[in-house]
Design a protein that fits this description.
The chain is globular and about 30 Å long. It has one domain. It is mainly alpha-helical. Helix 1 (3-16) crosses helix 3 and helix 3 packs across helix 4 (58-78). The two termini are 20 Å apart. The longest helix has 21 residues, at 58-78. Helices cover 68% and strands 0% of the residues. The protein has helices spanning 3-16, 27-41, 43-56, 58-78, 81-89.
Length: 108
C-alpha cells in the first residue's frame, strides 16, 4: 500500500465522519474517527458520501476536504508513519480498514 493510498483513505474516512472544525481534534481523536468511520461504513461508502457532498455542496465539500487534508498533513508530521498505520489498522479482523485500490476509484 502506498503512502498516497493511505493518506487518501484517511482523508476520505475523516470526510465521511462526523468530525467538525470546532472539535479541534487531537491526533488520537483523528485516528479514532478514522477507525470508527471505516468500521461502520467501509472505504467505499466513505468515498460515496464524499462524492455525494461534492455533487450537492461543492464549495462546502471542497472547504471541508482542504481542512481535513491539512489535519492529516499536520498529524503525519508529528506521528511516525508506522505508528499512524498501526492506528489505522488496529481493531480490524475483516480487513475493512485497509483501503484497497479496487475499492477506491480515482478520476483520471
Amino acid at each position: 500500500m502506498t503512502r498516497l493510498n493511505v493518506n487518501d483513505a484517511c482523508c476520505e474516512a475523516l470526510f465521511a465522519s462526523g468530525l467538525q472544525r470546532s472539535d479541534a481534534p487531537t491526533p488520537e481523536e483523528l485516528a479514532e474517527a478514522i477507525r470508527r468511520t471505516v468500521r461502520q461504513l467501509g472505504i467505499a461508502a466513505c468515498v460515496s458520501r464524499m462524492a455525494q457532498e461534492f455533487g450537492d455542496h461543492p464549495e462546502a465539500a471542497a472547504s471541508r476536504m482542504r481542512w481535513i487534508r491539512q489535519l492529516v498533513s499536520e498529524v503525519r508530521g508529528t506521528v511516525s508513519r508506522p505508528a499512524w498505520l498501526r492506528t489505522w489498522r488496529r481493531g480490524s479482523d475483516s480487513g475493512a480498514t485497509r483501503p484497497a485500490a479496487d475499492h477506491v476509484q480515482r478520476a483520471a
